[in-house]
Structure formats: structure tokens, C-alpha cells
Write a structure and sequence with these properties.
Structural class: mainly alpha
CATH topology of the domain at 22-112: Arc Repressor Mutant, subunit A
Helix content: 25-40%
Number of strands: 5
Shape: extended
CATH superfamily of the domain at 22-112: Winged helix-like DNA-binding domain superfamily/Winged helix DNA-binding domain
Length: 266
């Protein structure tokens, strides 16, 4: 049996004798953060730790780590998690990176939080939110012009759920309020930036796929069953009657006279 340690569980250089590596430090920061953490915040944490422990060169060595190095480290961690098949992954959002569980384990995780049900938006609220996302910043009048109905109620719902916010006032008469989406909107829908919103062709394909999935299956046309060919038993045609041969009539026998019955006249 070989004494070599498999590479998958072998410690990285510096893990034990040389102190933590940049990969493990970044992993610990992403794990401990209760909100998405950006590369800038990780770099600030590395500098702050170096200043707090100036006498420890193993900590100060990371004080000049660039943000691009941190991004590469996070990408390497994400690839490691995916290759190992872990139940968690690093997800990038608008605000930074966050360690989350894989969506594949949602059915079991929901059992830990039965009281927390996902809040669903109504169809009018989703329509209004979509208009704001694609046309932001926009006014309430812009929204009502597109939808054709008043949006007061759904706007308040979106504001309460922190999916939109007031972005200022428009430079038009009356100075109406402008609305735009928030960072919570980006995190809720898993977007890193607005460029990741689906374009018109993608929306059409998605709508067609949904319509096809919800459409009732058309019954297959009925094919008339082939009737088995009825077997007609061929009856033999009656043989033609042979013409009756003309037979001569049989002559009737003459009566035989009894000689005793006649008494001659003497």
C-alpha cells in the first residue's frame, strides 16, 4: 500500500507550516460574510489584518493583494467546488460573492424552514417590475401609458419589497418621480448587471416554450380501423341441366284374354 497522500486531500503548500494561503483566506471571508462580499472588501480585509498584525509576516504578505488576484482566486474556488460535487457553491451577484447551497438541495432545505414561504408577486406587479427594469429610470406616467391602467397599488408593493426605489425627478413639467430597480432586485433574480436581462428574442423563445408546455395535448386523429375483408365463399354454380332426351312412349300392353273365360257357341 502506497504512503502517498492523494492530491485531492493533500494540504496546499503553506497550509500547515507556512500559514494560510490566499485561497483559504478568501474562502473563509466569503463563508463568514452574511452578505455578498466584493473583491474590494476582501482586499480591505487583507490590508486591515496586515496592519493589525504588523509583527507577523505571514499575515502582512497579503496586504498588497490586487483585486484581480482575488477574482482569480474566487474563480478557482468555484471550479474546485463544482469539480468536487459539493452541496454549496460561490454565486456572484451585483454586490459581490456569496457562499450558497446548490438549488438541487432545495426540497430538503425547505424542511428546515417550513414557516418561510417564498413571497410571490402578482402578474400586474411582475409586469410593472419588468417595465421598470427595461426602461429605467421611468415615471409613473410612463408605466401607466404602457400598461393602460393605474399602477399605484403595485408600485407601493414593489417599494415595500425593496425591488425598486426612487431615483430622482424627471426634468419635465411637474417634476415627477423616477423609479429604478435596486441591488436587492439584482440579488433576488440572480443578476450581476442589467446586461444579463433577457433580450426580446430570448423572451419570445421563453414565452413560446411556456405556451407549448401549458397547451393541452391535441388528441391524435382517429384512424378508422380497417375492416377485415369478408370471405365470400364461392358457391359452385349449378351445372346446367342436360336437355331431356326425347324418349319414345312405351306402348301399353294389350289385355290378355283368358281362353277359359270365352265359351264358344256350339
Amino acid at each position: 500500500m502506497s504512503d502517498e497522500i492523494p492530491p485531492s486531500i493533500a494540504p496546499e503548500p503553506g497550509d500547515i507550516h507556512e500559514g494560510p494561503t490566499l485561497r483559504r483566506i478568501v474562502e473563509a471571508l466569503v463563508f463568514a460574510s452574511q452578505k455578498p462580499i466584493s473583491a474590494k472588501e476582501i482586499a480591505a480585509a487583507l490590508r486591515g489584518a496586515a496592519e493589525a498584525a504588523k509583527d507577523n509576516p505571514l499575515i502582512g504578505v497579503f496586504s498588497k493583494t490586487k483585486e484581480s488576484e482575488i477574482v482569480d482566486t474566487i474563480d478557482a474556488l468555484s471550479a474546485d467546488y463544482a469539480a468536487a460535487g459539493h452541496a454549496f457553491e460561490i454565486r456572484e451577484t451585483l454586490a459581490g460573492w456569496q457562499l450558497v447551497t446548490s438549488p438541487a438541495f432545495a426540497p430538503w432545505l425547505r424542511q428546515l424552514f417550513p414557516e418561510s414561504k417564498p413571497a410571490r408577486l402578482s402578474a400586474p406587479a411582475l409586469e410593472t417590475l419588468a417595465i421598470i427594469a427595461y426602461r429605467q429610470p421611468c415615471t409613473r406616467a410612463d408605466l401607466e401609458a404602457v400598461r393602460g391602467v393605474a399602477v399605484d397599488g403595485v408600485m407601493q408593493t414593489l417599494l415595500d419589497r425593496q425591488l425598486i426605489r426612487i431615483a430622482g425627478r424627471a426634468d419635465v413639467p411637474g417634476r415627477p418621480l423616477l423609479y429604478e430597480t435596486t441591488s436587492h432586485f439584482m440579488e433576488h433574480f440572480g443578476l450581476r448587471n442589467l446586461d444579463e436581462l433577457p433580450n426580446a428574442s430570448e423572451l419570445r423563445r421563453a414565452a413560446a416554450a411556456i405556451a407549448a408546455a401549458n397547451a393541452p395535448a391535441e388528441p391524435a386523429p382517429e384512424v378508422p380501423a380497417e375492416q377485415p375483408a369478408t370471405e365470400v365463399s364461392a358457391e359452385p354454380e349449378p351445372a346446367p341441366e342436360a336437355p331431356a332426351e326425347a324418349t319414345e312412349p312405351t306402348p301399353e300392353p294389350e289385355p290378355i284374354q283368358n281362353p277359359k273365360s270365352e265359351i264358344p257357341n256350339e
